[in-house]
Structures are given as C-alpha cells and as structure tokens.
Design goal:
This protein is α/β, with parallel strands linked by helices. Helix content is about 50%, strand content about 10%. The longest helix has 19 residues. The structure holds adenine and zinc ion. Its EC number is 3.5.4.2.
C-alpha cells in the first residue's frame, strides 16, 4: 500500500548529492567533497546534530529562485512516483536569508513549483515555513512577519532544528502572529527531546500537529491526551533510525502508538539523507513492524485527516 499524503518533509532534506554538485558547478562554488559518492559516504549520522551540520553545509549551493524551483520540482516528481497525492513541504527560510539569499527569491522558486504540482505531477501541495529553534524567538517573529507581509501562499508555520536548547515559550509571539494570519501550526518535538517538549509545543504554541512526537510514548498521560484530543503526529521511522532516536526499526514505537489510538501519520523527513522516499519508508516500516493492511489503511486515513486541505479535497483523497 502507498501513503496518499506526506506532511513532514523538509525540502532541503531532498537535496540529492548529484543536485548538490550540479548546483555548485552552476553557481561556481567549491565543495569539500570530490564527488556525489564521497558526499553520500558522509551520511552516517550519530545523532540529529551530526545530520544538521551536514544538511546545513550542503544547502549552501541553493542560491537562486531557479535552484529552489528545481529542488521542489524534483521532490514533487519523486513524491508522485511514490504515490503521494497531497504533500505539505517544509522550508527552513531563515537558513537561506541568514546567508544572504532574499526571502522573495526563495519563496518565488518554491511556491511556483508547488502551484504547478497538480498540472505537472498530479498532486496538490502546500508550503510550511519552519523557523529554527536554535535561533532567537525574535528572529522567528521577524520571519513570520516577513512571510505574512510577502503575500506568497503559505499554508503553515513549523518549528525545527535541535530541541536541546531553546524552550517553546521563546516562540509564542511568532506562533501567535502566524495564527492571527490564519496559518496552520506545527512543531518538531519529542524527537530527541523529552515528552515535556511535546506538552510544551501543545500548551505554549497551540500547534495542531506535532512533528515526530515519538518520545511521548514514555508518558502515558501524554499519550492519553494525544488520543483524546486527536492530535496528529507526523512520524518518520527511517529518520528516527538513521538519527539514532531508535536502535532498530523493529523497536520503533509507531505500531504501539497506533494500537493505543494515537493519530499517527507516516512520513520521510529528509529522504535524500536517510535513504528512502515515502514508498520506501512505507515498505521498510511495514516489514520491520509487521504492519498489515489494517495498520496501513489507518496510517493512510490519518494522513488524509491530518492534512490542511479543504473538505472537498479531503473527500477526494479519501
Ligand atoms: N530539520 C530537518 N530535519 C530535521 C529533523 N529530523 N529534526 C529537526 N529538525 C530538522
Ligand atoms: Zn523534520
């Protein structure tokens, strides 16, 4: 079975080494690796930060609106081939403006590719701008202000990067401003951080979904809350394996959480780095956790119910 939606996907995490080298040549940049194979050989991560360091370094090659358009279009083609019919993709806008690329250039490239998705690839797609947790709350607020004033079609606001430093409280103003402008809200939490981080983004940022959230399974009261409030978790088992959140895929809590009634959805996170787009993630997860048709149907249904789409589109996806 194929998943009809992908709700947790970082566009920068779809940058395949071949494209990194092509863009470096186009933009006349030197890379510290000899070729795509040498870069790919570095994809052996010990934790989230070791991944973020390489992910941040590779993004340097993304310089123009056309680069962002090409990156987005390549992901959409691959997602369509994986059977995805609706994608909500995240973009670390601050990572690009912070190194001198204009927000309008980035947003223009990404949103033009997303808008062309139904005609070109047969899937609908929306954009989530993610603010970075390792940067100050004031920077997140300035980014949200810039995004809402820009007029580009943005579906939601997210929060990502390391969970081990700032508190969710630091981002309240940014999330309040986004909510006031009608943006949907999500945040990474409970990936490498404790269950309290999940509670933090629910209580302080009032998010509608939680990205990852797998560490919530260590807190039965929190699991009960997620079930009662039907809060979707966008879970990424292969990412969790590759970033050593779990030691083995068969030990991943996804199946236990599903069986407890948590609204779990299945996603790829950063597929170029973790060796698997959503079709591959689905197959590997189903095999490792011995998921049957019923579990897979529930995951697919949850993905559609958790998507930020109009009800008419939701009915089509179902
Ligand atoms: N940015 C890209 N991938 C991420 C992840 N798995 N966790 C936090 N921030 C990220
Ligand atoms: Zn993520």
């Amino acid at each position: 079975m194929r998943m009809p939606t992908e709700l947790h996907l970082h566009l920068e995490g779809t940058l395949e080494p071949e494209m990194t080298f092509r863009l470096a040549e186009q933009n006349r940049l030197d890379l510290p690796w000899r070729d795509p194979d040498e870069l790919r050989a570095r994809f052996d991560f010990t934790d989230l930060q070791s991944f973020l360091d390489l992910y941040t370094m590779s993004q340097e090659v993304l310089r123009t609106g056309e680069d962002f358009h090409a990156l987005t279009d390549a992901y959409l083609a691959r997602a369509a081939a994986a059977g995805v019919r609706h994608a909500e993709v995240s973009l670390d806008l601050q990572a690009h403006t912070g190194r001198g690329v204009r927000a309008a250039e980035v947003l223009d490239g990404v949103t033009s590719a997303l808008q062309a998705a139904p005609g070109r690839h047969g899937l609908s797609a929306g954009l989530i701008v993610t603010v970075l947790r390792h940067l100050p709350g004031e920077a997140a607020l300035a980014t949200v202000r810039e995004v809402v004033e820009s007029g580009y079609p943005v579906l939601g606001l997210g929060l990502c990067s390391t969970e081990l430093t700032a508190h969710a409280r630091d981002f309240v103003e940014a999330f309040d401003l986004a909510r006031a402008h009608g943006l949907h809200l999500t945040a990474h939490a409970g990936e490498e951080g404790p269950p309290q981080n999940v509670t933090g983004v629910l209580d302080h940022l009032r998010v509608e979904r939680v990205d990852h959230g797998v560490r919530a399974c260590g807190d039965p009261a929190l699991v009960a809350r997620l079930v009662a409030q039907r809060i979707p978790l966008t879970v990424c088992p292969v990412s969790n394996l590759r970033l050593r959140v779990v030691d083995a895929l068969h030990e991943h809590p996804l199946r236990r959480m599903l069986d407890s009634g948590v609204m779990v959805t299945l996603n790829s996170d950063d597929p170029a780095y973790f060796g698997g787009y959503l079709d591959e993630v689905t197959d590997r997860t189903a095999e490792a956790l011995d998921l049957g048709e019923e579990h897979l149907s529930t995951l697919a249904r949850n993905g559609i119910d958790a998507a930020w789409v109009e009800e008419s589109r939701r009915r089509e996806l179902h």
